[in-house]
Amino acid sequence: MMTISSRTLAFLFFISLFLSSISLADNANEDLEDLEQLLSIDEEEDKGGAAQGKPSEAELLSRAQRIVIELNNENVKRVIDGNELVLVLGYAPWCQRSAELMPRFAEAATALKEMRSPVVMAKLDAERYTKAAKLLDIKGFPTILLFVNGSAKPYTGGFTGDEILIWVRKKTGSPLIRLSSVTAAEKFLKKHQIHVIGFFESYEIHGYLCLELLTDLYSNMQGVEYDEFVKAATTENEIQFVETNDVKVAKVLYPDIRSNKAFIGIVKSEPERYESFEEKIEEENILNFVEVNKFALVTSLTELNSARVYSSPIKLQVYFFAETDDSKPFILLLQDVARKYKSKIMFIYVDSSEESLAKPLLTLFGLDGKRPLVTAFDNRIGSKYLMDSNITTRNLEEFCSGLLHGTLSAFFKSEPIPNHVSIHLVSYVHT
């Protein structure tokens, strides 16, 4: 008698689930029960196939995508109304940004399931299921919405798997991760390349301190500062905030801590790895500190981070254009100069071969990006500048100094003067 593998059974079950999902007889509970059964098959398969090695990356992605419920015109209302928390990705099959976001969305779904989060992750082909898209008010692609008891909240986070996970956790009641042991801190570092650490002796929120602490002015001050840290962690949408009251744990996350007083710092995976917060501990100051310091010294522009780059509070921005191979000799030079203008000028690298990113910017200067070049923008006044000298440390520093102090001559793109001008016409040169 022919035997059927568990993987084949899983595949057949998935097909049957898909077919049943478009039936009017479906309901939200059945969708979720079917999903759990499918996942249990995967878990059994993992145990049975342990001797054959770990699943491939493609297998992991396929499994992650199956955690995300497929919405359609028939089941969308039941899923949204039948669950307290639903995160929906509206996409179109032809949309490149949707295709880039899909595996990251699935990655976040996997992490949330492992954390036993109550958030249901769902996706909707908004082009195919227009009725459902209209019901959810999805008009562009990709669109992410969080439904809380049926009411939609716009997504305002980043677009990596970690950033989606962080945003969901913060918006559903977990703005902070609390670490109480060195082992937990070491495990945290393996998963989070960038984070904000807060070290406080007291976790108590001001106004809820116990009677003994109310007699201690220092502890009371720590409560106020911790309150501001929690507010900032809740408001900031993209960076994971972590807290500890153990200095040994804090030193694992931020080795340069030299005080037992309240401390806040940001940790990144780049040459400027550690940056400490030196201002008064208030929500607005913390948020400004994170916004200015969360980017790398030289940020690589991508489809997923472009909106954040363009909306950065640092309004003086220097753009370096080059193809990947041509950029390598200049990156260290750019980082050295960027370090001197940190928090004043933002430095951005754009791969000239990525037309969707480079061409709109290069067109403003009438350039094709075939050779490395540097431009700049002052977004406070809408002016643009072109560095027309060789890219050396000295020339770039002079260019940046002029940008900072307002002494650069703005660039104006001119149309070529016509070769033949009719005596009956007046030709204008647009600038």
Automatic annotation (TrEMBL):
Its EC number is 5.3.4.1. Residues 1-25 form the signal peptide. It catalyses: Catalyzes the rearrangement of -S-S- bonds in proteins. One of its GO terms (biological process) is protein folding. GO terms for cellular component: endoplasmic reticulum lumen. It holds the Pfam family Thioredoxin. It is an enzyme of class 5 (isomerase). GO terms for molecular function: protein disulfide isomerase activity. Residues 50-173 form the Thioredoxin domain. Its main location: endoplasmic reticulum. Keywords: Disulfide bond, Endoplasmic reticulum, Glycoprotein, Isomerase, Redox-active center, Repeat, Signal. It is found in: Endoplasmic reticulum lumen. InterPro entries: Thioredoxin-like_sf, Thioredoxin_domain. Belongs to the protein disulfide isomerase family. PANTHER family: PROTEIN DISULFIDE ISOMERASE, PROTEIN DISULFIDE ISOMERASE-LIKE 1-5-RELATED. This is protein disulfide-isomerase. It comes from Dendrobium chrysotoxum.
